Amino acid sequence: MTLPKHIAIIMDGNGRWAQLKGRPRTFGHVKGTRVAKKIITACSKKGIKNLTLYAFSTENWFRPQAEVSLLMTILRRYLKRETENLIKENIRFSVIGDLSRVPKDVAETIGKSIEATSKCTGLNLVFALSYGSRQEITEAVRSIAARVEAGELSADEIDESVINSSLSTYPTPDPDLIIRTSGEQRLSNFLMWQAAYSEFYFTDILWPNFTESHLDEALHAFSGRQRRFGKVSANDNLEKFPN
Ligand code: FPP
């Protein structure tokens, strides 16, 4: 079975899952975190090289203060409790997104986890946190413009590789597979440049109900996809095309 080198997941449906149980939305985030932990371990065991989890978007700052605050607490607690396990599992942790908006104690905990796992050589685990693709692309354009202004680069030299290496995801390869749970079928400002040739897998399962078997189903679907990256496959008979 062909495994994706990079899986990116939009973990959606925590709030609906909790509401269906008559519980506050935050209960869904707590359960969602336990699921994230299991899926991280499962990806690591399967030998997936890169996993990006959309943990908090730039738009999520507009949620009620209590929910935002609980999500930050969850993240901090997760990292404090899990960093030792990440090291044991040889998982290297990093973050993409605008950490200047994240509370100082959370940013410090993130920094410590990044440092503590920096020598790990297994799964590259990335949390997209306070992340938005438009903001990321805007930042990249700004940094390239500054290099042009400083005379380090000419406008003609700006190509896809210059843009690629100016994005926060660099040098992680583009996601081969993007999974979104909960029945929604959109990208929601996630890895828009990087998703140019990603395969999408949408499932109605709400994130707190997502299990390793659902991950296996997604991997199975991925291995059956023909990825042509805009080209034709070697077996395509062009002469059969109708006039
Ligand atoms: C989407 O569900 C989920 C989020 C906005 C947050 C995702 C965060 C977690 C799973 C917890 C933190 C993660 C880690 C890895 C520590 P939603 O609230 O939009 O659900 P809804 O669409 O049903 O309202």
Defining traits:
binds farnesyl diphosphate, six-stranded parallel β-sheet, alpha/beta, 243 residues, 42% helix, 14% strand, Undecaprenyl pyrophosphate synthetase, globular
If classified by CATH, what would the architecture be?
3-Layer(aba) Sandwich
How is the main sheet built?
6 strands, parallel
List the domain count as a whole number: 1
How does the helix and strand content classify structurally? alpha/beta
Class, according to the CATH hierarchy? Alpha Beta
What string gives the helices and strands in order? EHHEHEHEHHEEH
CATH-assigned homologous superfamily: Decaprenyl diphosphate synthase-like
Question: What do the pLDDT scores average to?
Answer: 95
The share of residues in helices is 40-55%
Indicate the overall shape: globular
Radius of gyration: 19 Å
Strand order of the largest sheet: 3-4-2-1-5-6
Uncertain ranges: none
Calculate the terminal CA-CA distance, rounded to whole Å: 38 Å
Number of helices: 7
Q: Name every ligand kind in the structure.
A: farnesyl diphosphate
The CATH topology comes to Undecaprenyl pyrophosphate synthetase
Fraction of residues in β-strands: 5-15%
* Secondary structure tally: strands: 6
Subunit structure: Homodimer.
Organism: Bdellovibrio reynosensis
Protein name: Isoprenyl transferase
EC number: 2.5.1.-
